[in-house]
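Severity: low
Component: inverse-folding endpoint
Summary: output formatting inconsistent between runs
Steps to reproduce: submit the following structure tokens with default settings.
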């Protein structure tokens, strides 16, 4: 039996413009876009009155913690947080236990993703065990459709090894993504290095630790011709280095996390470990530069760095707590807040949260490998896979830890009133979130 769904009364957000249109989805594929469409009896109506209808979001940076960290998150719980946040696809990071550094573990996570409520793409590790010593079998993982490799959680410290990884990656036509922090400079730092870290008596992690590695990776990418993606950039200097490299023709993209667009080191004053993250929260000056870079295209995408942690490791003295914070469930509204609040342009929001990340993750076309994922971040046009989100820009949900789908509770946004609410998320034509409620 054919399955018909009409998304009615919304404002469709296209690549460059918005239009007032209904969207008819038949068997998971967009089959009509227009006004006052005639619909067959039995069509499911999805109310989008007063809402934005856009491509569902795509996260380039999600820690799903499986295998090995199931007390903090599972693929199923992280996926539920994702669809509640309006996502239809996420990139699972490889700092699991064991690390995702072989085709066996890739296959395991892909299978878990297939059973979840959204599409899970998998990032493979660059080095065996993410130890930074020997290259992982990139080709073997690429055979399963892996196109994105990173040791995220740490950067690849050895420049010679990184050069080799980039040379291989170029041959395999895959992306090398780096967590840019030089360990020798970052040391045991647990917050931004500044006069505030001295005042608080906490060891600092300098901006320089990030920028030195950004500069190195850009030089290596220029030399090798490899496609480079820079994860969670946090400083004004990093944004400037990437802008310069793009002008020089380096094949580079970059992301920023919502927390680096909104929060500053000042929040560390109370020694609350919820604000501990790597790279650390920086200054208002950095936040402003990152916002400008995102608006100008110097930084390409917003990626959550959703990093769930169980209370045993997070509720500890600041210096000892694990770094990282939740991000998936509220990223859209937080990014909107950073980009102008009620004045933020929905075209820009869907560009940085869906269309561009889908391109970087190579998720714009369906693929029989990688768990057989569908196409994300595309046009709202006839023939496209229906991975869609309906967002009420006037919604004002309040972040409450009891409504988080994640198994963890480490959100720095508890009690914050958000600007905009995800009403419906549609993955492969199925309504997985209906009126803000996850359906499975
Ligand atoms: O703060 C962070 N937490 N930064 C990372 O790069 C890794 C992440 C994690 O896995 O918890």
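Observed output (run 2 of 3):
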């Amino acid at each position: 039996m054919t399955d018909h769904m009409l998304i009615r009364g919304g404002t469709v957000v296209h690549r460059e413009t918005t239009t007032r249109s209904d969207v008819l989805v038949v068997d998971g594929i967009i089959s009509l876009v227009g006004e006052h469409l005639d619909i067959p009896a039995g069509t499911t109506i999805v109310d989008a009155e007063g809402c934005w209808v856009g491509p569902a979001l795509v996260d380039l940076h999600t820690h799903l913690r499986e295998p090995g960290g199931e007390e903090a998150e599972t693929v199923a719980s992280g996926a539920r947080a994702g669809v509640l946040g309006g996502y239809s696809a996420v990139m699972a990071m490889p700092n699991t236990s064991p690390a995702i550094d072989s085709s066996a573990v890739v296959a395991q996570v892909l299978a878990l993703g297939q059973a979840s409520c959204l599409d899970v793409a998998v990032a493979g590790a660059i080095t065996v065990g993410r130890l930074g010593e020997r290259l992982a079998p990139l080709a073997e993982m690429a055979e399963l459709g892996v196109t994105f490799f990173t040791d995220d959680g740490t950067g690849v410290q050895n420049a010679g090894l990184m050069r080799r990884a980039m040379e291989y990656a170029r041959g395999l036509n895959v992306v090398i993504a780096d967590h840019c922090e030089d360990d020798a400079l970052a040391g045991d730092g647990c917050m931004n290095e500044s006069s505030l870290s001295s005042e608080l008596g906490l060891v600092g992690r300098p901006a320089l630790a990030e920028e030195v590695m950004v500069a190195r990776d850009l030089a290596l990418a220029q030399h090798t011709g490899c496609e480079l993606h820079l994860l969670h950039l946090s400083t004004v200097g990093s944004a400037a280095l990437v802008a310069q490299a793009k002008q020089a023709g380096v094949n580079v993209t970059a992301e920023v996390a919502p927390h680096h667009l909104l929060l500053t080191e000042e929040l560390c004053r109370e020694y609350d470990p919820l604000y501990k993250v790597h790279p650390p929260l920086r200054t208002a000056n950095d936040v402003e530069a990152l916002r400008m870079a995102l608006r100008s295209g110097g930084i390409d995408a917003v990626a959550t760095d959703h990093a769930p942690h169980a209370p045993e490791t997070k509720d500890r003295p600041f210096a000892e707590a694990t770094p990282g914070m939740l991000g998936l469930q509220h990223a859209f509204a937080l990014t909107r807040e950073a980009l102008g609040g009620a004045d933020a342009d929905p075209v820009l929001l869907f560009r940085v949260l869906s269309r561009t990340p889908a391109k970087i993750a190579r998720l714009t076309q369906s693929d029989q490998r990688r768990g057989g994922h569908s196409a994300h971040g595309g046009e709202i046009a006839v023939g496209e896979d229906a991975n869609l989100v309906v967002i009420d820009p006037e919604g004002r949900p309040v972040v409450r830890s009891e409504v988080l789908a994640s198994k963890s509770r480490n959100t720095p946004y508890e009690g914050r009133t958000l600007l905009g609410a995800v009403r419906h998320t549609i993955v492969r034509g199925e309504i997985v979130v209906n009126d803000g409620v996850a359906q499975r």
